């Protein structure tokens, strides 16, 4: 089994209207890892995602999945799209049916599965996102956060290995964010590789194992989250500050309160370290 | 103006359904060919139907001060072509019956014929004619939209008159009655809809 | 949308749409088969009572839903009852001979058919009805339009509502002239969205491996066959009653 | 001049579909202050805003503006809406014109101003949000953050006294947030009263003078931001944690590193306090 699930090698793409999508972009996503792609609006995150799923085809460069170059024939695309699930940012632009269960059945039916398997997959996927009771509900009566979870269920029902989410936290309030993070944690626990776009460096640091920086259509760096502190220059190059928690941790280490090697990921972590306890109460555990 | 559920006698309900069916079927064939060439058209038609449904629910400020709803048939015919409007209109009218109890299932055929066949083809025809007579773009749009609206309403009145001829004056007298009663709301509406459609196209031209 | 709300929250929400559709169809047949206005009115009353008490639709809501159709009926009745006389000088109105009989026939038939329609739509969500049409082999393309229309009309309604609110907040509807202009801008903006949304949905469909007609799994209804038999028998009884009271 | 600009007194509102909007809600906004309204989605923030602008009319209770009860006649509404500017959450739903300048001119034209004044106001408003160069651009080519600023300009062009923004930070990346905050600071400097909805307590604490808590259609408390620390119970009642920075400050005070009376509002503040400097580098100064 190949360790690297998805790989872009020097991919460039320019839209028909002339605007730049990707510019010599290389990126590798390891199987089973939690990844964040971070960059400003317009940096090319969405374009990159559409390459991962075969919706766009590189004009130069190559996309590899599980070691092999992507085959853009009908069968190849079908296989790629069943293994790489893509959740777009706006639920209103990807939910086709007004019935929750119907919409979730869309993907598996396109895979050509029989009715009984589809029914099972729909139930499982809705269960996985905590919407098991909502199958019969109309989409238009759901909250924004619930719609988002239906979108995820619609992709999960295709049983992807890699789940890509474009700005999943945007527009969600605190509670919905917690619920969504719990869902993602569960999926990660099942072995699904995750790749999220965000522009919140604090969230990225708290949640991810690997952080991919993106600017002007190019991945400028891939950093292990734990080593983010020593890569301030790379962050600054794409207009991002260091996570606040790192700045704080350093100041506290300077006062001798924390060991210089401590790597708290969130405020709760930092407090725990301050209180000399060894266990981490941070919701999003360290690697 | 939708003919309500059950208002037409059995023979008329069946007759108008049979009359509307070939137009809907023909429209579907046209659409199928378009989709073969450009697959994204499949989504376009469903979204267009939703657009027409929502548009027809808008409250239109009418010149007499009363409020009314636009039919959108003229706008739709000019944007999507009159042939495609028959199936789109059929779905919109079906949904209006099922979601709003406007119109009905037994009168669906009659309503499709007036609103999704006569209206759109009238709009397309009037627009072509007006343009060929060197009328300005805005005037052509106005005429197309308001006459499509007006002809829809004339058709409905004729449908009703045919079903319920006046015992003394026959079809003509009955037509005059139905047209007279609904003229109150329909003529100002036709003018408002014409104006609105011109404003829409003016705004579209700037995008 | 009052019908929409009722359809998702009534006692018969989980009954197979095929059974409800069968019974509603029988209602239509009974209304048209009824020879006398009184019989049709009886069927109308029965269906309305069944919907209000059986399915648990509040009577006030039922009347509000029926109101626009009743308004049409009132206007239409005017021209059935009165006749326009143009023979003797100035045109004048008078009671049409046989007008009241015609009103009774048409009015009771309309009310009956309306009651049958309301029975169906107040107990059955539109997505179930579309599922039923799918089962009845409606052309695929028409179903695609329906499914997308049903979903998207709520998206558009929300967009229209939000934009109307934003325009009102900036005084866009302060006078009728401004209102026409604001509404035109709103509709033009909505028109553009038709293409944008269609394109986005197309991409989203491809991402989920679609390459043709949109396929969905119709929901499963417990005891569907059983309910259909019951509905069929009840429907036959209704038709029998209407015909025998000729 | 009345000190209290906007006041809701026991306002209740239920939507036609039966859902609750406001429930006996009272709130007062002081002239010239920076206010945050914080609460979960569905708490009634948007409904409250629509009352402030006369879009909705209280079913019971009263809305006062500058001391007088709001007059819901045509002239009264025109006056209220020109004085209370409302910026909605989703820019795509409130920008409906082809070009930036055209959209910004919508409000002033509706006020019945002459062309020259409208032109001047449009230019000024675009200048104020840092979009002076963008007047001729088509709206749909702008970035999300730019669209948001055009929305604000569209309201500013009506020269409101009170500017209300619904979730202004949602969907903005780090840089855009900084830009938007700079715009808001400038407007506040001109004497415009500000009221923002958010569900981010850390942001609220950093930015606001007064924080209004909202839950289930009711304002449950109005707190001076500086005293937030002693009102953990009120926050918890509406499902909000204490701002992280307060928790940290307390822990550090417990270690004797900070004085117990220190009130840092953001990480930069906290660091400065740690470093024993007296000046506050926090961008959003203390009151």
Care to describe what's here?
The complex is a heterotetramer, with two copies of chain A (287 residues), one copy of chain B (207 residues) and one copy of chain C (246 residues). Chain A has 287 residues and is an alpha/beta fold. Chain A folds into two domains: 4-241, P-loop containing nucleotide triphosphate hydrolases (Rossmann fold), CATH 3.40.50; 243-287, no CATH class. Chain A contains ten helices and ten strands. In chain A, helix 3 packs across helix 4, helix 3 (100-110) runs parallel beside helix 5 (144-156) and helix 4 (115-128) crosses helix 5. The two termini of chain A are 22 Å apart. Chain B has 207 residues and is mainly alpha-helical. Chain B has a single domain (10-206), classed as Arp2/3 complex 21 kDa subunit ARPC3. Chain B is 77% helix and 2% strand. Chain B has helices spanning 10-37, 41-55, 73-80, 82-100, 108-132, 137-163, 170-206; strands at residues 60-61, 67-68. In chain B, helix 3 crosses helix 5 and helix 5 runs antiparallel to helix 6. Chain B is globular and about 55 Å long. The mean pLDDT of chain B is 90. Chain C is mainly alpha-helical. Helices cover 74% and strands 3% of the residues of chain C. Chain C is built from nine helices and two strands. Chain C has a two-stranded antiparallel ribbon with strand order 1-2. In chain C, helix 2 runs antiparallel to helix 3, helix 6 (126-135) runs antiparallel to helix 7 and helix 7 crosses helix 8 (176-207). Chain C starts with a helix and ends with a helix. At the B-C interface, helix 1, helix 2, strand 1, helix 4 and helix 7 of B face helix 2, helix 4, strand 1, helix 5 and helix 7 of C.
């Amino acid at each position: 089994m190949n360790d690297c699930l998805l790989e872009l090698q020097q991919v460039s793409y320019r839209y028909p209207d002339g605007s730049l999508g990707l510019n010599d972009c290389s990126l590798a996503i390891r199987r089973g890892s939690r990844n964040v792609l971070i960059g400003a609006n317009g940096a090319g995150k969405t374009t990159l995602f559409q390459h991962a799923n075969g919706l766009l085809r590189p004009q130069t460069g190559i996309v590899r999945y599980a070691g092999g170059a992507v085959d853009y024939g009908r069968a190849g695309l079908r296989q790629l799209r069943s293994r790489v699930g893509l959740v777009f940012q706006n639920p209103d632009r990807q939910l086709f049916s007004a019935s929750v269960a119907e919409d979730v059945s869309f993907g598996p039916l396109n895979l050509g599965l029989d009715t009984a398997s589809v029914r099972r997959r729909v139930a499982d996927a809705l269960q996985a996102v905590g919407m098991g009771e909502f199958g019969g509900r109309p989409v238009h009566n759901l909250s924004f956060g619930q719609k988002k979870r239906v979108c995820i269920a619609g992709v999960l029902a295709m049983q992807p290995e890699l789940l890509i989410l474009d700005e999943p936290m945007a527009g969600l309030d605190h509670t919905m964010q917690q619920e969504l993070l719990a869902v993602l944690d569960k999926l990660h626990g099942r072995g699904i590789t995750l790749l999220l776009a965000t522009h919140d460096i604090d969230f990225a640091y708290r949640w991810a194992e690997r952080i991919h920086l993106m600017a002007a259509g190019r991945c400028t760096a891939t950093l292990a989250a734990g080593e983010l502190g020593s890569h301030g220059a790379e962050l600054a190059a794409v207009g991002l500050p260091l996570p606040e928690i790192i700045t704080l941790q350093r100041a506290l280490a300077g006062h001798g309160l924390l060991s210089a090697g401590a790597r708290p990921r969130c405020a709760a972590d930092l407090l725990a370290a301050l209180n000399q306890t060894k266990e981490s109460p941070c919701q999003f555990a360290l690697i | 103006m939708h003919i309500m559920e059950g208002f037409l006698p059995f023979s008329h309900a069946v007759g108008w359904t049979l009359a509307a069916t070939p137009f809907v079927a023909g429209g579907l064939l046209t659409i199928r060919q378009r989709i073969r060439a450009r697959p994204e058209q499949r989504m376009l038609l469903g979204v267009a139907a939703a657009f027409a449904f929502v548009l027809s629910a808008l409250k239109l400020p009418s010149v007499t001060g009363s409020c009314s709803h636009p039919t959108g048939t003229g706008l739709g015919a000019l944007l999507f072509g009159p042939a495609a409007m028959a199936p789109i209109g059929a779905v919109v009218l079906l949904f209006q019956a099922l979601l709003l109890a406007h119109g009905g299932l037994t009168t669906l055929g009659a309503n499709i014929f007036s609103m999704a066949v006569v209206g759109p083809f009238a709009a397309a025809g009037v627009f072509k004619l007006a343009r060929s007579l060197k009328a300005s773009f805005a005037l052509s749009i106005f005429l197309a939209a308001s006459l499509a609206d007006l002809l829809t309403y004339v058709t409905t009145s004729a449908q009703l008159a045919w079903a319920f001829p006046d015992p003394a004056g026959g079809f003509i007298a009955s037509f005059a009655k139905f047209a007279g009663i609904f003229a109150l709301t329909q003529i100002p509406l036709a003018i408002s809809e014409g104006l609105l459609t011109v404003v829409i196209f003016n705004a579209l031209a700037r995008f | 949308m009052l019908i929409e709300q009722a359809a998702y929250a009534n006692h018969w929400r989980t009954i197979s749409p095929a059974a409800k559709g069968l019974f509603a169809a029988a209602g239509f047949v009974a209304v048209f088969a009824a020879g006398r206005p009184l019989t049709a009115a009886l069927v109308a009353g029965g269906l309305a009572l069944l919907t209000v008490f059986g399915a648990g639709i509040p009577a006030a809501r039922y009347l509000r839903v029926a109101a626009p159709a009743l308004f049409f009926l009132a206007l239409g009745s005017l021209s059935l009852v009165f006749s326009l006389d143009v023979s003797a000088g100035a045109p004048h109105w008078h009671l049409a001979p046989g007008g009241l009989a015609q009103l009774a026939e048409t009015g009771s038939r309309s009310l009956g058919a309306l009651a049958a329609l309301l029975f169906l739509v107040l107990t059955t969500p539109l997505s179930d009805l579309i599922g039923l049409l799918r089962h009845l082999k409606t052309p695929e393309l028409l179903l695609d339009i329906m499914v997308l229309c049903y979903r998207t009309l709520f998206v558009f309604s929300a967009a229209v509502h939000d934009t109307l609110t934003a325009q009102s907040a900036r005084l866009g509807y302060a006078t009728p002239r401004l209102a026409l202009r604001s509404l035109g801008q709103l509709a033009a903006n909505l028109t553009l969205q038709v293409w944008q949304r269609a394109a986005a949905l197309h991409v989203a469909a491809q991402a989920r491996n679609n390459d043709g007609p949109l396929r969905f799994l119709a929901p499963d209804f417990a005891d569907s066959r059983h309910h259909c038999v019951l509905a069929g028998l009840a429907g036959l009884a209704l038709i029998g009653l209407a015909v025998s009271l000729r």
